[in-house]
């Protein structure tokens, strides 16, 4: 289906931008945000084709099915309703004929009461009011709250929040060093409450606390959809916050998995975050496709990955506080759309979703932008920037940040011709062969595509909108690719083999059946002193 589009990928972006009104025409605005995709080689004809692809893949019908609680995660037999977690002012949402909203609102109210108790010092540790919170979780039980807590640091007025995810003991050791167990609250966050990294870290944290506190379990809370297992771990039910199987791990920061964020910024700002997500849901459900930000973000993504054949895309937030957003989007996008078969189990006849990577600007500029500007692989860039920062006394910093962001997209598009490079070298005093040689290195091919998402300021509401925007983008791309964006079977094999490997490494089993490379690595580990 991409052939007709592939034939149309040769346009020069700078030429397209000479068309009157292209910038506004190839942009979508919503509630103080502007998504500009005019610096891509997408022509009007290409866009029309992309929109017809969305229509023929029944994106609107699938969207309605998701919001209606149908079991669109077919391989796990589950509904996909993370949107219900932010549906504060909406109507009922039914799964199997049951309205889930009373349960969602009740859990939110419990989280809020607990967060206020902690923040206001009514819930205390053995040594007094809680000063520090450690969230122990991994993947979807880690990346969202960690990303969001860092993103919204100007709104922090609660305890300090720390995040431990890796089973590497270095992670928890570095976190615990310097913390007082008597004023620390530990949240064990795991949807399944079986994830080996999380359970190992949770036990280590409990042992650490037990050395200083008579009743360590009293300073533990749990977030999980396996409440029987939280009880086995010894966490009292009043500090267990559950969620249902219709919330996928990487879509879960809107519910109890967001507890550390709520503790940091307070329930009111957490609600503003939820309302931002709900506003994006409303927009996604009602705006016509061409004015629909998630739909156009998705179609631009597919244009680059499937029509142009660019294998990766970079997400480049010009916001240091969004430094974990690329990692968050990696899970959201690659765990969702990195699949090899269709919903029916047939091999995909095209590429799956692209590799997603990135770093905040301006740091990336001094590292990998070299390749983006002059490498032979084209990397579509998704820039993101707030017009205003949070530091009124540092506006000159923010102005420079924005200037860099805008300049990068311009430079990528414009490039620098050989004639321009020659002129520059002439001015610098070069001549003859040396001038030619030097000039060649200073040519930028240009015509490198980028999009920019620009907004006023990174508030809790804005963050909610951005996260929901990308969630729906992933959904639309998944529907068009015909895959299930809501399972993650690809993580299972490694987990199973790690379980097998542990007794081999310890010497309890010999590992004779393993391949030569693996046996060699095992021998190295066993031989290390
Ligand atoms: O929340 P948990 O059950 O501990 O799962 C944590 C993470 O690990 C799994 O392996 C999945 O790849 C992720 O989707 C999930 O978010």
Keywords, please?
15 strands, binds 6-O-phosphono-alpha-D-glucopyranose, six-stranded mixed β-sheet, Phosphoglucose isomerase, C-terminal domain, 529 residues, single chain, 3 domains, Rossmann fold, globular, alpha/beta, five-stranded parallel β-sheet
How would you characterize the overall build of this protein?
It contains 21 helices and 15 strands. The protein folds into three domains: 1-68 and 272-414 and 449-487, Glucose-6-phosphate isomerase like protein, domain 1 (Rossmann fold), CATH 3.40.50.10490; 85-265, Rossmann fold, CATH 3.40.50.10490; 490-526, Phosphoglucose isomerase, C-terminal domain (Orthogonal Bundle). Helix 14 links the parallel strand 12 and strand 13 (355-357). The chain has helices at 3-6, 13-16, 22-25, 44-56, 59-67, 101-119, 143-151, 169-176, 196-210, 227-232, 259-265, 267-286, 293-307, 325-337, 369-374, 395-414, 418-427, 432-441, 460-481, 492-506, 516-527; strands at 27-30, 33-36, 94-95, 98-99, 124-125, 128-129, 132-136, 160-164, 184-189, 220-224, 240-242, 312-318, 355-357, 381-386, 450-455. It has 529 residues and is α/β, with parallel strands linked by helices. The radius of gyration is 25 Å and the shape is globular. The protein has a six-stranded mixed beta sheet with strand order 1-2-15-14-12-13, with helices on both faces. It has a five-stranded parallel beta sheet with strand order 8-7-9-10-11, sandwiched between helices. Strands 3-4 form a two-stranded antiparallel sheet. Helix content is 46%, strand content 12%. The structure holds 6-O-phosphono-alpha-D-glucopyranose. 6-O-phosphono-alpha-D-glucopyranose is lined by residues 138-141, 190-192, 195, 198, 249-250, 335, 488, 491.
């Amino acid at each position: 289906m991409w052939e007709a589009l592939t034939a149309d990928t040769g346009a020069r972006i700078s030429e397209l931008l000479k068309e009157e009104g292209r910038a506004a025409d190839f942009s979508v605005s919503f509630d103080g945000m502007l998504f500009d995709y005019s610096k891509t080689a997408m022509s009007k004809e290409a866009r029309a084709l992309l929109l017809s692809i969305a229509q023929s893949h029944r994106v609107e019908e699938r969207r309605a099915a998701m919001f209606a609680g149908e079991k669109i995660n077919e391989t796990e037999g589950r509904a996909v309703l993370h949107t219900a977690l932010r549906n504060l002012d909406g109507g009922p949402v039914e799964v199997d004929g049951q309205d889930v909203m009373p349960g969602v609102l009740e859990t939110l109210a419990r989280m809020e009461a607990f967060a206020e108790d902690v923040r206001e010092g009514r819930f205390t540790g053995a040594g007094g009011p809680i000063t520090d919170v450690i969230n122990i979780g991994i993947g979807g039980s880690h990346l969202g709250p960690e990303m969001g807590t860092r993103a919204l640091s100007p709104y922090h007025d609660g305890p300090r929040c720390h995040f431990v995810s890796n089973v590497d003991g270095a992670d928890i050791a570095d976190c615990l060093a310097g913390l007082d167990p008597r004023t620390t609250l530990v949240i064990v966050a795991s949807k399944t409450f079986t994830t080996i990294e999380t359970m190992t870290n949770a036990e280590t944290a409990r042992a650490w606390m037990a050395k200083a506190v008579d009743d360590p379990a009293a300073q533990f809370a749990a977030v999980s959809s396996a409440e029987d297992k939280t009880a086995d771990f010894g966490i009292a039910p009043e500090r267990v916050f559950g969620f249902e199987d219709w919330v996928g791990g990487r879509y879960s920061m809107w519910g109890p998995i967001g507890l550390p964020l709520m503790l940091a910024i307070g329930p009111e700002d957490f609600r503003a975050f939820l309302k931002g997500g709900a506003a994006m849901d409303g927009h996604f459900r009602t705006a016509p496709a061409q004015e629909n930000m998630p739909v156009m973000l998705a179609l631009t993504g597919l244009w680059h990955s499937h029509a142009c054949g660019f294998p990766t895309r970079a997400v480049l937030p010009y916001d240091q506080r969004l430094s974990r957003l690329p990692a968050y989007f990696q899970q959201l996008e690659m765990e969702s759309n990195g699949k090899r078969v269709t919903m029916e189990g047939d091999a995909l006849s095209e590429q799956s979703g692209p590799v997603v990577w990135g770093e905040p600007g301006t740091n990336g500029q001094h590292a990998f932008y070299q390749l983006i500007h002059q490498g032979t692989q084209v990397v579509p860039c998704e820039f993101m920037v707030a017009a205003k920062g949070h530091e009124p006394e540092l506006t000159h910093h923010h102005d420079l940040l924005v200037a860099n962001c805008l300049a990068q997209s311009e430079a990528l598009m414009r490039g620098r011709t050989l004639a321009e490079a020659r002129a520059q070298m002439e001015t610098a005093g070069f001549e003859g062969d040396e001038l030619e040689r030097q000039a060649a290195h200073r040519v930028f091919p240009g015509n490198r595509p980028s999009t920019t998402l620009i907004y006023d300021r990174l508030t809790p509401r804005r963050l909610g909108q951005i996260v929901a925007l990308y969630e729906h983008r992933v959904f639309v791309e998944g529907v068009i690719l015909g895959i299930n964006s809501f399972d993650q079977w690809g993580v299972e094999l490694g987990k199973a083999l790690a379980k097998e490997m542990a007794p081999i490494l310890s010497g309890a089993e010999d590992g004779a059946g393993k391949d030569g490379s693996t046996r060699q690595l095992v021998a190295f580990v066993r031989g290390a002193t």
